Amino acid sequence: MKLLDVVRRSGRSLRSAKARTILTALAIAVGGFTLTLTLAASNGARSYGNNLIASNFDPSELLVGKDPDLFTNKTSSKPKEYDESITALSNGGGANLQFKRMSVDDIAKLRQNPSIEKVRENYQVTIQYITRQGQKRYTASGEAYNSAQKPELKAGSTPGSDDIAAGTVLLPDDYLGPLGFTSAQDAVGKSITVTVRQPFSTTDIQSLAAQIASGKAQNTQPQPTFQTQTKTFTVSGVTKKPATSFNIGARPILLNQSDAQILNEYTTKGTADYQKFIYVYARVKNGTDPQQLTKVQDQLKSQGFSVQSVKDTQKQITQFIDIMQSIVSVFGVITLIASVFGVVNTQYISVLERTREIGLMKALGMRRRDIRRLFMLEAGWIGFLGGAIGAVLAVLAGLVLNPLITKKLDLGTNRLLIYQPLQIILLIVMLIVIATIAGLLPARKAAKLDPIQALRTE
Amino acid sequence: MIEVKNVGRVYGKKENAFVALDDISFSIPTGATVAIVGKSGSGKSTLMHVMSGLDRPTTGSVVIDGKELHKLKGKDMDNFRATGMGFIFQSFFIEANQTCQQNVMLPLEISGLPISKRKKAVLAALTQVELADKVNTKAGNLSGGQKQRLAIARAIVNKPQIIFADEPTGNLDSATGQKIMDLLFGLNKSLGVTLIIVTHDHELAARCQRQVVMKDGKTVTNTQKQNSGSLNLGKVGK
Ligand SMILES: Nc1ncnc2c1ncn2[C@@H]1O[C@H](COP(=O)(O)OP(=O)(O)OP(=O)(O)O)[C@@H](O)[C@H]1O
Ligand SMILES: [Mg+2]
User: Fold this and answer.
1) Which sequence spans correspond to the domains of chain A?
2) What pLDDT was estimated at residue A91?
3) Nearest CA to ligand 1 atom 24
């Protein structure tokens, strides 16, 4: 018997038992649906993660820090040897994370490295307030412009070079209304003022010292009057809220690197934070070549730095997504296992129902192998049907859900559910194979039937 | 040449054992026509099944053209069933939810005839049994006699050299029955097909060269046509 004939015959007998076929297929479809959705969501998450990295990091840059725990997932709870550079970051739970930091010397050492093109300190500025003429004062934070982050602009232009011009800022669009601009375009070219404050009031300390010297210190409550500095900047562009951003909360004003340095040092001078960095960005020469990047990474590690590349960050994100994916997949696989029993059951019933037909086929000389194939193919068809139904439903669900999720989570042009045809085809093939294997036992039973006995059953 | 040698067939085991065939021996030359007659339950169908390789004898053997039928390998046995013989079942065993064409095509599919030749062969077989106009009719919608003829078409479509017919005219009116018998005897004459027919019809039995009369699983008489007068056909039949 030709395989084509067996295929056609199996299709025909499935069609003659439509309800049963579809119900069994639906059980498989549940698993197929879950797995298709899981795959799509993981694709989406992975793609989102990659976009996030691509729009926030320069792949040829390395993150270089001093603390050995910095880029590891676990933080050692053992006490660390004290070092003046150590700072404490308190996390949400109130626990302190102690980090060794990069000093100016360390940075100088990096700058001397011939393989490193550029070192960029990651300046953050604690701003007291920003304002402009005739407007109220508003809280804000500042950060050095990072060309790898390529902020999307509502108005103005991104610099062609690595940095924005000194004396200019990129203003988040959230400030447009509060600062009295009528539109983003209106803000471009206008000036705003940024006010920062010194950590200590030097005049207070001097007067306090004088008071102590004169013996009147006990009754005096020195009024802290901090020295502040106000700088005027021209708005060169207005930034939009990016779909892919690590920032939660208010977005910072983006400053020229040296402006950011000046403001940062003004606000930290005399504190332990002065010219200390948890990490800096080091751009590797020809760093787009992964081998070169790894080489420099290893070299820096041997010099006692802890280093992370964009790839490492990506790996961490991907790893997380992989774990999530496996957890959800388990549910899909469980439903699949349940549906396998459905297929076995359905096929046993089918063999029973068609005992006479099988007897006839055997009496007419159909080979055992062909009868076995016939029933396995039927099971395979059920698997195909289930997979196809599940996949179609999942894709439809994606069509409905994607716009909703993207809107809800503010993902911009990113899609949470990304369907890859090849994946879906492979999944369906897998379901066909599983169902076919599930059909093996009933098929063997059919092949073993004795023709006359089978024909005699009513 | 079909040789039936000391064939016995016992159904069930121990206390429930029932001897359906008891030490039956006879032989049928190639191209002969044989009628098997006997009362209901005498073992006619059982004998046909054993002779055609659909069932196994408990004892004895069936030798066809020098080869012991039940010692054939699975593949050879399947080949014999598919192309060596055609079997017309007492209760048709046609697939009611399939069309006449699909029913008659099944043996062609099994024997692996090229697809292009199938339709023609099916139509030829259906024409022989005068069902050409029912090609696409569901078999379940046919009348009893038409179903009988469809079963015959399926048995002859592969042009087998031996045809076993288990009461092929039982459901037909005498005119149609006559036509079917003419057809089967025609195949015997023109192609030398060996015909083995179970029947209750005296006239039909008389047309065969040989009669095997069965009673309680044994052959009572085994006569050639020349002296068929010794057959008391009046005693047999339902
Ligand atoms: N599978 C079986 N198990 C037990 N007994 C059986 C089985 N098949 C047939 N028999 C018995 O064997 C005997 C012969 O049956 P068979 O069908 O050969 O009769 P038959 O001569 O063809 O009768 P009819 O003219 O009614 O068709 C019957 O008594 C029947 O009950
Ligand atoms: Mg019978």
Assistant:
1) 3-51+317-456, 58-310
2) 54
3) B40
